[in-house]
Amino acid sequence: MKIILLFILRGLSWLDYGYRALVRWIIPYPYRRTGRCRRCGECCQNILIGMEPWMLRIRWLKNFAVWWNQYFNNLYLIGSYPADGLLVFSCHYLRADGRCGNYNLSRPVFCFEYPRLFKYFEKPVELKNCGFKFAARK
Question: Distance of alpha carbon 130 from its chain centroid, rounded?
Fold first, then answer.
């Protein structure tokens, strides 16, 4: 049952990914991403999942979001910032050498599109050791 549900959810995630790609084609993102992955694993140790702050103040909604990411994305909760609407997770697939132990099509879509840009017109936050950098488009 989990495999069927996972297949359906991954398909919906890919549809969402395609929709966002279409939007980026119509309205170009104001920042240009440069660099490449250094395979340090820092992004896999600090995965931010954003929600509305009021949702995280409701215990069952927060618990559902945590369960969802544990069950379907193989993540585990390491922190919570309800005032900012953020849950911080780490990934069970991360190996000791900083590489992904599930580097294929079954990993979550947000891994394929990292660094994902939630606030489209704001400059993204760059992780300290990350090889990806952002610069304003001219």
Answer: 15
H helix or E strand, kind and range, residue 73: helix 59-73
Each residue's pLDDT tens digit, 48-76? 888 889 999 999 999 999 998 898 888 99
Sole residue written with tokens 């050791």? 129
What span, in angstroms and rounded, lies between the C-alpha atoms of 49 and 47? 6
pTM reported for the whole predicted model: 0.72
Q: Do residues 92 and 69 lie in contact, with contact meaning Cβ atoms separated by under 8 Å? A: no
- Residues 65/87, Cβ–Cβ less than 8 Å: yes
Alpha-carbon distance of 87 to 45, in angstroms, equals 12
Three-state DSSP class for residue 71: helix
Token readout for 21 is: 């790609």
